[in-house]
Write a structure and sequence with these properties.
It contains five helices and no strands. It has 75 residues and is an all-alpha fold. The radius of gyration is 14 Å and the shape is globular. The N and C termini lie far apart (37 Å).
Length: 75
């Protein structure tokens, strides 16, 4: 693992830039839905945003347009 980090620090940056927005939005959605179990699972597990995307689109039943609308109003 250390060799991977030393050889390709850009990959870590790219992964972080991919994971953080998904995790943030999923945690925010879980807290607004009062889903304590989902909030804890999403907070603890790092699944490279796969679980977060599943929660957002299949459990919370959000649409891509909902996410875009949120980002447009905040920017």
């Amino acid at each position: 693992m250390e060799n991977f980090i030393q050889m390709d620090p850009w990959m870590i940056l790219i992964l972080a830039l991919w994971i953080m927005p998904w995790k943030g939005y999923a945690l925010w959605t879980a807290s607004r839905n009062k889903s304590k179990i989902w909030f804890l699972v999403l907070l603890v597990l790092n699944t490279f945003a796969i679980l977060e995307i599943v929660y957002i689109f299949y459990v919370a039943k959000k649409k891509p347009s909902d996410i875009l609308k949120l980002f447009k109003t905040k920017l």
